[in-house]
Amino acid sequence: MPSASPDTIHPDPVDALPADFRIEGALAVRAILRELAERHVLVTLYADERLADFAVSQVLRAADAGVDFDLSGQEPFVQALSRACRVVGVAFPGQVKTQFCLERFTVVHEPNGALLRAPLPAVLHRIQRRDAFRVALPGSAEACCVCRVPPDGEVRYRLADLSVGGASILLPPGVAAPEPGTIWPHCRIETSDGRMLPCDLSVRHVDEHPSGNGAHLVGVAFHAMPGDVRRQVQIYVLDLEKRLGRRR
């Protein structure tokens, strides 16, 4: 399992987590899982904490009897579950990392697709960390943000880092920095492996680049992003971490 790290998007070792991150009791655990379901928060499930065997899912139901996760279209992961003893879930509602473990589970095949069914976990952890879970991109060729310039133009900016909730965009010297609160509509993220992820961006903060050359780093959050696109972003971030060897 990965060692403890302040910025990993993968599961943290439970014995490395401070006690104040721990939440237990059926009422509290069920309430948090229901919130994930109501907000349609993506949950990454890992078979036996193997980083290569994961599925990006959502909570379908959280009740006294247990919790269901969507596994539709996740056949490789369903196969991995046949060899697994437990499943670890990781979700990111806002800047809070939520982690839990399912010790007993079954795969149920229904007309609309497979689902993972398990009793409510006895314990979960909510890990609050500032500026966490970002992946620094290795170079300008890895990914860029394409922004619309009315009426018909486009401009490409380098992505400095990326997370499941937003990104940091590098504006070169001479480009006017936006005001916090600005919405950039009709953007997209283009990656070196050919992915195109449409997005609207909300500017959260603007900082001068440490080089002092007049460039700026613009922190943006994904604005009203559809669930299927959020899933693609999360899968890309996970793939990027694996490719960069950041297995903590």
Description:
The chain has 248 residues and is mainly beta. The protein has two domains: 115 residues, Electron Transport, Fmn-binding Protein, Chain A (Pnp Oxidase, Chain A, Roll); 109 residues, Thrombin, subunit H, CATH 2.40.10.220. A hairpin with a 3-residue loop joins strand 11 and strand 12. Helices cover 15% and strands 44% of the residues. The strands form two sheets. It has a nine-stranded antiparallel beta sheet with strand order 1-9-6-5-2-3-4-8-7. A six-stranded antiparallel barrel has the order 11-12-13-16-15-14.
Helices and strands in order:
Layout: E1 22-24, H1 26-38, E2 42-47, E3 54-63, E4 66-70, H2 75-81, E5 87-91, E6 96-102, E7 106-110, E8 113-118, E9 123-128, E10 135-136, E11 143-149, E12 153-162, E13 166-171, E14 183-191, E15 196-208, E16 216-223, H3 227-243
Antiparallel strand pairs: 1-9, 2-3, 2-5, 3-4, 4-8, 5-6, 6-9, 7-8, 10-12, 11-12, 11-14, 12-13, 13-16, 14-15, 15-16
Compact overview of the structure:
The chain is mainly beta and 248 residues long.
Looking at this protein, list some descriptive labels:
248 residues; mainly beta; Pnp Oxidase, Chain A; Thrombin, subunit H; 2 domains; 9-stranded antiparallel sheet; 3 helices; 16 strands; 15% helix; disordered N terminus
State the major sheet: 9 strands, antiparallel
| CATH topology title of the largest domain | Pnp Oxidase, Chain A
Unreliable parts: 1-6
Strand arrangement, largest sheet?
1-9-6-5-2-3-4-8-7
CATH architecture of the largest domain: Roll
Q: Strand-residue fraction?
A: 35-45%
Described by the principal axes of the CA atoms, the overall outline is: elongated
Write down the secondary-structure element order: EHEEEHEEEEEEEEEEEEH
* CATH H level, superfamily name of the largest domain: Electron Transport, Fmn-binding Protein, Chain A
CATH class of the largest domain: Mainly Beta
Distance between the termini: 8 Å
**pLDDT averaged over residues:** 88
Got a strand count?
A: 16
Domains, number: 2
Helix fraction, binned, reads 10-25%
Please state the structural category.
mainly beta
